[in-house]
Design a protein that fits this description.
Length: about 300
């Protein structure tokens, strides 16, 4: 590659294809996640990272070696690995005396850390401990958030946005009913966040709509909120900005209600109601028209008799 005036010009076709894959697009590719552990981790943290990796596959990269870094003190290493693997989400696990069983959910914008939220694991049940069938790899989960904190508190709002971005999976146009088989439920209560994973079972109900039962699949977490690093409102707004080409064009005189019903407004010219053709009824005719009509009827009858 040669670089001039800040523009990288590739010499090989392979290099050109690589740069085109990293270039901005109108419809971005699915977000990938890098999962790594710090210099000191516990068995709980290591197993938790593996279980979350199993939920994120194949859109995730798991680093097995330890990385001596502290994202809240210095995030340059996270940005370096993000640029190397083209990942916009990360999960970092660590363990120390001050913050035991610690994991950090984070996301990046333009290969720079946008926001990070640190959670402590108080209780953990792994996938192997719950003996039940698991969902196939790459299943798109349904996300459920319960608790007033997700609607009222600013930190919990950002946590909800971050978890949605982290677990929502690839964007699809449609999902068949049988594909809705994984549920991730997050509950905010008394300063804690409870994460549960369920598998949907579609049972016979005697009608077209099946009866749904939930079977706990794992992993199961009880989190406590610790440190946060949130982006400013201007940077957060810039990260959510969409190109004009993707914004839907507003159609005039068309509206939708809360149920999704489409309404259209038609503009017509002013009509002359005096010339409006209505149903011909004797009671609706004027007095002069009725007499003339009766006389015409009598003359036609006389003509028939004479003939």
């Amino acid at each position: 590659m040669t670089q001039s005036d800040g523009i990288i010009k590739p010499k090989l076709k392979r290099t050109k294809r690589f740069l085109e894959s990293r270039a901005p697009k109108l419809a971005e590719d699915g977000k990938s996640t890098m999962i790594m552990k710090g210099g000191n981790t516990s068995q709980t943290v290591s197993q938790a990272l593996k279980d979350i990796y199993s939920l994120k596959k194949p859109n995730a990269v798991l680093y097995k070696k330890k990385n001596i870094t502290r994202p809240f003190e210095d995030s340059t290493s996270m940005e370096f690995f993000s640029k190397k693997t083209d990942c916009s989400l990360f999960l970092f696990g660590s363990h120390n005396k001050k913050r035991p069983n610690n994991i950090i959910f984070g996301r990046l914008f333009d290969f720079h850390v946008l926001d990070m939220i640190e959670l402590g694991i108080e209780k953990f049940v792994s996938l192997s401990e719950i003996k039940s069938n698991t969902c196939p790899e790459g299943t798109k989960p349904m996300l459920v958030f319960a608790g007033e904190a997700f609607e009222m508190d600013n930190e919990h709002k950002r946590l909800r946005s971050l978890l949605t971005d982290f677990f929502r999976g690839p964007s699809v146009s449609a999902v068949r009913l049988a594909g809705l088989e994984h549920v991730l439920h997050f509950t905010a209560l008394d300063g804690k966040i409870f994460m549960r994973s369920y598998r949907c079972l579609l049972k016979k109900s005697g009608c077209r709509t099946p009866r749904i039962e939930l079977e706990e699949m794992g992993p199961s977490f009880d989190f406590v909120l610790r440190r946060t690093h949130l982006a400013s409102d201007d940077l957060y707004k810039l990260a959510h900005k969409q190109p004009k080409a993707l914004k839907p064009k507003k159609k005039k005189n068309i509206s939708h209600n809360v149920f999704g019903t489409k309404f259209g407004r038609v503009h017509m010219q002013k009509q002359d109601l005096s010339k409006l053709q209505t149903r011909k009824m004797k009671g609706l005719k004027r007095k002069g028209e009725v007499v003339a009509g009766e006389q015409e009827g009598e003359t036609s009858k006389v003509a028939k008799v004479e003939s």
